[in-house]
User: Fold this.
Amino acid sequence: SKYCRLRIDNNGGAWCPKHMVSRNLNEYLQIDLLSQHVITSIKTQGRFGKGQGQEFTEAYVLEYWRPTFGTKWKRWKNLQGKEVIYFFID
Assistant:
């Protein structure tokens, strides 16, 4: 999506799902890197909205796929076995 770029304020500067997000929904953003890569970091930003944006994700999970997995996706875990990445706002 042209709206899911860091430090750009087009349409509020954020990708948003079609429907209002709730804990019961399973919204996702899927990115095809076209070949196998090693991901070393991920950056996220909330909706900027010309400085008025208040919306941002509080937590998310990452899943990845390789051709050897068939149709299954695998959930990323950190060294402690935690799957959910939480954001803390100062």
